[in-house]
Q: What sequence folds into this?
């Protein structure tokens, strides 16, 4: 049985296209390791960060079908909660993950109940506007309470470093790569193996049909939304370790996540990892040329446009 | 709301708007300038939305128009009014060119690509310092019309009126049926003989040109351009909010939304100096929850439904 | 139900519209002297500027006011948006009937405010705008414009002067090779442009841009890597407060410790001093809370601010705005009236001992006639506190050199 499954997996991946991609990626990686190792390292680390943050948005977009423009703001709130625990009780960010997740899930449930549920029956654009309003309320509320001055924590493990040859680099940021993979695997297991997960997939594909077969659509939406916000509750404290947080810090990450999800294709969680890898590496590669770093942003957006266009051409 | 009362309201409001400078001071006029510019963006965004395409790239064409206007005035000595036109033309042409490639996309993919394009425009302008002055932008030696508040007001009013005229043109000609049918069901539309690509291209080019004109007018009224300032995402997100709050798929909705949100943001900050933006966000949340068709939708529901379900 | 809702909504809109358009400014009580201010209240710099200015106004009023009249300060939020800054000035001029304009933080907003300044030509004492683009926009004829904040090139010149003085006093300090990492927006780019030519007097300067964490970036790997390769005597970064700790963290992780590590953001995050990574980081600035230890005016301001607002002043904008109000007050008293020509003459005679440490006077800069502060200070984080290193007449501590490396933190 396991052998059979292994066979299937092997045949699925044993196609010329994947050999070419895999082989050339390996070649590129080796070249980078020799000439510009820090590109490989920082590329991997940013890829992990982008992927980890984008996955919850992909979940909400794929199943509940709404673009959560407040995505980055929820991340920001999670980070501020961790900062609060640190500033008032001296609890380190990693240790505060559990209480932060609890609070964030509560926030997610509350937000869903009070606002999002009501707007699901309305046109898709209303949902967009609602989450935009929520993002404004969240960031301005935090601004009022905590002022716009950035907050940070200084943990000794944030700067743990390793050295390969003449390159020293920070090791902590690899935690994002680990998290991204864990989140992806966890979500895939949830969606494919658990009852509520499979129900969620059904709801994502056809809410009316799902309702007809007796699935509690509203409960599923609530569950998925809470899971996504809960994941942000894990990412927030970790984000705080290596970033200074300020009320508007979320906006850029909302946009990046949205771009990544569109690039990977709505509903495709695994592709988010590959796309973020490509984007992270491309960005790091461009920046490694002194004087051309400014063009990194253009490469980022061009890649997104190209991938979306190519995929549209293929499906049409 | 029948045709006659709509026209009466239009005439009254229009007269009020045009004659405002005669009895109100520079401050209400400056609010008016902001409201009209955002109104124009909201209406032009709505015009494309009627085809089903959601654009997140308003800021891109706005900024292109602004830069064209300032650069043609500074480097080519073009008269300011003509430069506003030039801004619109350039934005329209760019839209035509990119539309060729990009208009085949739908839904959120189109939206993200327009957002990406706007960012690409911004970064190019930011980095091409020899042409555009780089991150610090460029300053005009004087604001258009020498800063006469009334003329500035009428200029921005004119831009808003132009956009509204185009919007009504879209409503009252064949374009309306074409766009609506594309939005409802593309398969049916194309089998009914609607050339989808052509209509989408027209809509995209015209609305982008209008956004370029608005950007150029902004640059002339405030006298400067800068990459962060002229391509700010506020010029994309706020008009969206205004159109949605006011009610989409029509001219009245974005106008109402622009008036409401534009005036509200000034009003709120005078009475709630710290935290007025929280209230602003709450206004958006509350209105969209309780008025899903927007404010104009309250009125529209009373009309006999003559268009098929548009969600 | 919907009907009532509609009617209510329409009424609300009408009230709001009327309230904004026709809202009178102040009720005429006892004919106060009206100061009109524009600051970004949603940002800590603007919020604290407004509070510090109000503190000054309250102090002055409690002591009897100016020329027998009370001061009234009206502050409108610029929301960091150019068009809102301009509209705020219009309102202050025509609805609140401000006699004098004060305020200012952002250069970008100032660009839209300048045409309005020129429209009303009121006496203006401006605390913001460092970009020389703004100076060009104002032009040489605006004799009613008094600018407190040093221009970008003046800041650069003062740093060069400072380092030359420091190198003379502490001969072990090496300044031959500089590396400037600058954020790719207007602030960073203008810092680099100004610095490149100025620092040629003391050494060579190489620069590279990065995307600041404040604008969605925050990865400094490539600039630090290139800086490492360049092996400079001095490394400075010109970004924003959000970059301060992450850049130190990455420098430590990448084992980069040049002999002199300078940060030049316009402000610092709240807990930077608490981090062990802040040790001996040099910074550029205008003021530090530690000045209270050496300067009585500083101490008075600091204590009064903390007492009234229960929070410490976090950026130099607080004492700067406090100074602006007192400068205006002194000038009105000297002039004996609010007559514009007399006020201008009185302001030109300003000699105000400010909580920033220096005595503020006005003199010409490149283009405008009345520039107040023409230089910055060089400071250093020592034991978690910002200490002033230069100018020596305001110093609160001696320079610690070289930057100690990462081993014991």
A:
């Amino acid at each position: 049985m396991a052998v059979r499954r292994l066979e299937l997996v092997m045949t699925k991946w044993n196609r010329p296209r994947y050999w070419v991609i895999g082989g050339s990626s390996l070649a590129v990686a080796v070249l980078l390791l020799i000439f510009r190792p820090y590109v490989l390292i920082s590329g991997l680390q940013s890829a992990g960060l982008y992927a980890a943050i984008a996955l919850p948005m992909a979940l909400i977009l794929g199943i509940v079908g709404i673009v959560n423009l407040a995505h980055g703001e929820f991340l920001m709130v999670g980070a501020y909660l961790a900062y609060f625990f640190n500033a008032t009780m001296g609890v380190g960010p990693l240790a505060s993950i559990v209480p932060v997740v609890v609070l964030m899930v509560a926030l997610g449930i509350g937000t869903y109940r009070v606002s999002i549920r009501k707007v699901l029956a309305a046109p898709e654009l209303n949902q967009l506007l609602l989450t935009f309003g929520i993002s404004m309320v969240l960031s301005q509320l935090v601004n009022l309470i905590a002022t716009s001055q950035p907050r940070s924590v200084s943990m000794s493990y944030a700067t743990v470093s390793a050295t390969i040859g003449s390159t020293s680099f920070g090791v902590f940021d690899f935690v994002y790569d680990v998290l991204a993979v864990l989140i992806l695997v966890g979500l895939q297991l949830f969606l494919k193996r658990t009852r509520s997960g499979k129900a969620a997939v059904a709801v994502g594909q056809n809410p009316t049909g799902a309702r007809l077969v007796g699935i509690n659509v509203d409960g599923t939406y609530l569950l998925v939304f809470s899971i996504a916000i809960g994941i942000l509750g894990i990412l927030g404290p970790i984000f705080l370790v290596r970033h200074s947080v300020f009320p508007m810090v979320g906006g850029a990450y909302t946009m990046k996540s949205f771009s990544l999800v569109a690039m990977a294709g709505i509903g495709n969680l695994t592709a988010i990892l590959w796309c973020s890898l490509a984007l992270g590496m491309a960005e790091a590669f461009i920046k490694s040329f002194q004087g051309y770093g400014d063009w990194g942003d253009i490469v980022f957006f061009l890649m997104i446009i190209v991938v979306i266009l190519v995929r549209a051409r293929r499906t049409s | 709301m029948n045709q006659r009362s709509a026209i009466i309201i239009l005439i009254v409001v229009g007269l009020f708007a045009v004659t405002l400078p005669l009895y109100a001071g520079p401050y209400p006029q400056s609010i008016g300038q902001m409201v009209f510019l955002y109104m124009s963006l909201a209406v032009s965004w709505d015009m494309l939305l009627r085809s089903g395409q959601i654009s997140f790239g308003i800021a891109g064409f706005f900024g292109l128009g602004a830069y064209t206007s300032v650069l043609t005035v500074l480097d080519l000595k073009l008269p300011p009014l003509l430069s506003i036109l030039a801004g619109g033309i350039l934005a329209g042409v760019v839209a035509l060119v990119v539309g060729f490639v990009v208009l085949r996309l739908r839904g959120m993919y189109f939206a993200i690509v327009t957002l990406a394009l706007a960012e690409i425009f911004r970064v190019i302008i930011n980095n091409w310092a020899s042409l555009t002055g780089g991150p610090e932008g460029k300053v005009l030696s004087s604001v258009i019309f020498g800063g006469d508040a009334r003329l500035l007001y009428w200029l921005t009013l004119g831009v808003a009126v132009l956009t509204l005229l185009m919007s009504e043109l879209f409503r009252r000609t064949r374009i309306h049926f074409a766009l609506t049918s594309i939005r409802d069901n593309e398969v049916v539309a194309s089998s009914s003989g609607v050339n989808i690509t052509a209509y989408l291209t027209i809509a995209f080019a015209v609305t982008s040109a209008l956004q370029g004109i608005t950007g150029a007018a902004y640059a002339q009224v405030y006298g400067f351009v800068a990459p962060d300032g002229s391509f700010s995402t506020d010029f994309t997100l706020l008009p969206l909010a205004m159109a949605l709050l006011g009610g989409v798929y029509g001219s009245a909705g974005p106008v109402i939304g622009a008036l409401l949100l534009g005036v509200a943001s000034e009003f709120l900050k005078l009475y709630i100096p710290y935290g007025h933006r929280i209230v602003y966000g709450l206004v958006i949340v509350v209105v969209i929850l309780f008025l899903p068709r927007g404010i104009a939708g309250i009125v529209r529901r009373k009309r006999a439904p003559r268009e098929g379900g548009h969600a | 139900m919907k009907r009532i809702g509609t009617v209510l909504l329409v009424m609300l809109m009408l009230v709001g519209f009327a309230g904004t358009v026709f809202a009178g400014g102040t009720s005429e009580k006892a004919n106060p002297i009206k100061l009109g201010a524009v600051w970004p209240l949603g940002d800590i710099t603007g919020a604290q500027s407004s509070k510090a200015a109000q503190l000054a106004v309250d102090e002055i009023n409690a002591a009897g006011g100016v020329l027998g009249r009370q001061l009234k300060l009206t502050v409108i939020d610029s929301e960091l948006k150019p068009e809102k800054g301009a509209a705020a000035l219009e309102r202050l001029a025509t609805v609140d009937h401000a006699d004098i304009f004060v305020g200012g933080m952002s250069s970008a907003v100032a660009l839209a405010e300048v045409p309005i300044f020129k429209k009303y030509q009121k006496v203006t004492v401006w605390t913001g705008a460092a970009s020389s683009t703004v100076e060009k926009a104002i032009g040489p004829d605006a004799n009613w414009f008094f600018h407190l904040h040093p221009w970008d090139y003046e800041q650069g010149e003062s740093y060069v002067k400072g380092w030359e003085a420091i190198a003379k006093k502490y001969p072990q300090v090496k300044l031959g090779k500089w590396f400037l990492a600058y954020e790719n927006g207007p602030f960073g780019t203008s810092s680099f442009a100004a610095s490149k030519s100025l620092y040629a007097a003391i050494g060579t300067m190489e620069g590279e841009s990065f995307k600041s964490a404040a604008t969605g970036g925050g990865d400094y790997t490539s600039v630090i890597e290139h800086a490492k390769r360049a092996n400079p005597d001095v490394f400075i970064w010109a970004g924003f407060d959000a970059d301060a700790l992450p850049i130190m963290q990455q420098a430590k992780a990448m084992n980069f410790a040049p002999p002199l590590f300078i940060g030049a953001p316009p402000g610092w995050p709240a807990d930077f001093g608490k981090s062990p990574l802040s040790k001996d980081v040099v910074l550029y600035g205008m003021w530090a809370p530690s000045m209270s230890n050496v300067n009585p005016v500083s101490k008075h301001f600091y204590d009064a601010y903390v007492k009234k607002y229960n929070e410490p002043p976090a950026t130099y904008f607080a004492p700067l705005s406090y100074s602006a109000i007192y400068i205006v007050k002194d000038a009105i008293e000297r002039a004996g009236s609010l007559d514009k020509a007399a006020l201008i003459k009185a302001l030109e005679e300003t000699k105000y001992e400010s909580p920033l440490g220096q005595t503020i006077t006005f003199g010409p800069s490149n283009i405008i006639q009345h520039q107040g502060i023409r230089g910055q200070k060089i400071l250093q984080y020592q034991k978690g506190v910002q200490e002033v290193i230069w100018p020596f007449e305001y110093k609160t501590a001696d320079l610690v050199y070289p930057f100690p490396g990462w081993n014991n933190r």
Summary: Chain A has 13 helices and two strands. The two ends of chain A are 38 Å apart (CA to CA). Chain A has a mean pLDDT of 91.
